[in-house]
Amino acid sequence: MTTPDGIVSALSVALARQRESHEDCPLFNDPYAQVFIDAALNRGCDLPTDEASQRIDSIANYASSRTKWFDEFFIAAGAHGIEQMVIVAAGLDARAWRLPWVNGTTVYEIDHPGVLSFKNDALREHGDTPAVSRYVPVAADLFDDWPDVLRDNGFDVTEPTAWAVEGLLPYLADGPHLLFDRIDELSAPGSRLAVEAVGTGVADWLAGRGWQVTTMGAQELLTRYGRCGDHGGADTQADTVFVDAKRVR
Ligand code: SAM
Q1: Ligand 1 nearest-atom number relative to CA 66
Q2: Using CA atoms, how far apart are residues 178 and 202, in angstroms rounded to an integer?
Q3: Which of 18, 22, 127, 242 is the most exposed place for a label (fewest CB within 10 A)?
Q4: pLDDT at 55
Q5: Whole-angstrom Cα distance, residue 156 to residue 150?
Q6: Any coiled-coil ranges, and where (predicted)?
C-alpha cells in the first residue's frame, strides 16, 4: 500500500505513546498506539526511520508529558461543561477512544483523508469503538475549507468548543495565522484552546484577540510531571510554549 500523506509523522508520535505505555510508571496508557503500529506493518506502510526512532527516544519524556498535558486539558474542558471538542491534525491520537468523556460529548478530528481512514479502519478491524457519544472524522487539508465541512457535520458555532493543536505547527510554517483566525471565528464565549507552539507569537496573537492566555515552557512541563533529567529533551524544545487559552467574550 502507498503510505498516506502524514502517516509517518503521525506514527512517530504513536511510537512514543506506545513506548510510554510500557514504562514502569506511565503517565498514561495508550493501547491503541500498538494497534496502529501493527496495522502499519501489516499494510506495508513506511515506518519512521531508525534516525526518527532515535530522535523519538531522545525526547521521550517531553513527548509523554505533552500527551499528558493535552489529556488533562480535555478532561478539564469536559468538567467545565464543554461538550464540543475539536482535535486539529489529530493524526493517530486516540483520545476519542481512551479518555473518560462526559456523556453527550462530540469529538471532531481533522486530518488528511488517508490518515483518518487508516486510523478508523485499524481501530474498527481491531474491534474498538470510540468512547464519546459522537465521533466525527473531518477529512480535510487545513489549508482548505475545513470550517464548512465541520459545520456541515453538525459543529455548532454558538456552543463553546475545546480545541487542541498538538504536534502540528512545524508543518504549518507558512500558514499558522490562517488556522488561528479560523479557530477564533468558530469559538463561542467559554471556548478553550490548547496549543503546543514555538515561541510566544501564538500566545500574543490570542491575547490580542481577547483570549485569556496562560503559558508554560517545556522545562516547566517536564518538572510538573516529574520527567526532568535524562531523555527529557528540554534542550531541543527550548522555545516550545504550551498555550492554554480561554475565550471570555
Ligand atoms: N496531533 C497528533 C499527535 O500529536 O499525535 C499528530 C501529530 S503528527 C506529528 C502531525 C499530523 O498533522 C499528521 O497526522 C498530519 O497528517 C497532520 N497534518 C499536517 N499538515 C496538515 C494539513 N495541512 N492538513 C491536515 N493535516 C495536516
Answers
A1: 4
A2: 12
A3: 127
A4: 83
A5: 9
A6: none
The three-class DSSP label of residue 73 is helix
Q: How far is the CA of 67 from the centre of ligand 1 (A)?
A: 15
Q: Which residue has the cell 456523556?
A: 103
- Ligand 1 atom 16 nearest Cα: 6
Residue 48 alpha carbon to ligand 1 centre in Å: 15
Q: How many Å apart are CA 209 and CA 221, to the nearest integer?
A: 26
Query: Residue with the nearest Cα to atom 20 of ligand 1?
Result: 171
CA-nearest residue, atom 15 of ligand 1: 6
What the block records as the C-alpha cell of 12 is 512517530
Computed from CA positions of residues 153, 157, 161, 165, in that sequence, does the dihedral angle turn out positive or negative?
positive
C-alpha grid cell, residue 137: 472524522
Domain 7-247 has CATH 3.40.50.1000: no
Pocket (CB within 6 angstroms of ligand 1) = 6, 9-10, 13, 89-93, 111-112, 115, 141-143, 166-168, 171
